[in-house]
Design goal:
This protein is an alpha+beta fold. It is 41% helix and 25% strand. Strand 1 and strand 2 form a beta hairpin.
């Protein structure tokens, strides 16, 4: 059996960056590790180095994404406050994505660490299902569990009307905290 040669240092980081730029879907750390014949931990370090160079790479529950600076001209964003149990997370996310909204992140205010933010990046039910499955498989906790259910989301859509409709549906479901 022929042993594949590791791709080293800067050459590996440039390849990872190129693959992320060319991909129209998230690429997992395991996929990048297999393509470069290194461990997933080495890939995690490479991604950190690329981010330190201000490369717009984000880690999502589905893998790494390169977000080019040429975002659509008209994107509307809003930060919303929500409250629900961990078991209601899928319902909340479905409501948002069913209204054409992307859930970019989740934020909480921790009494010791201050503001904590985690990337979510889901835009459809398949991505929500993958996100929930990863939480369940890894037995990870939802950030909202640290604040007894209260949390914020940054949501985006291509129209303010979609954001309004999504917020109205969240309010109807009892998930939206209004100021």
């Amino acid at each position: 059996m022929k042993e594949e040669k590791k791709i080293l240092g800067e050459q590996r980081r440039q390849l990872i960056l190129q693959w992320l730029k060319e991909s129209n879907r998230p690429i997992t750390g395991a996929e990048l590790a297999a393509k470069t014949n290194v461990s997933r931990q080495v890939v995690v370090q490479d991604i950190s180095l690329l981010k330190a160079r201000n490369e717009p790479i984000i880690a999502t529950s589905q893998g790494y994404l390169y977000l080019p600076p040429n975002v659509p001209a008209q994107t509307y964003a809003r930060t919303i406050a929500c409250f629900h149990t961990p078991e209601q997370t899928k319902e909340e996310l479905y409501i948002l994505v069913d209204h054409g909204v992307t859930v970019k992140d989740v934020k909480i205010e921790h009494p010791v660490y201050g503001d904590l933010t985690a990337s979510v990046m889901v835009s459809n039910r398949l991505e929500v299902d993958q996100f929930i499955k990863k939480i369940e498989e890894t037995k990870a906790s939802y950030l909202l569990q640290l604040t007894d259910g209260t949390h914020l989301h940054t949501i985006e859509a291509d129209s303010a009307a979609k954001l309004d409709a999504a917020c109205h549906a969240l309010k109807k479901a009892g998930f939206l905290i209004e100021s």
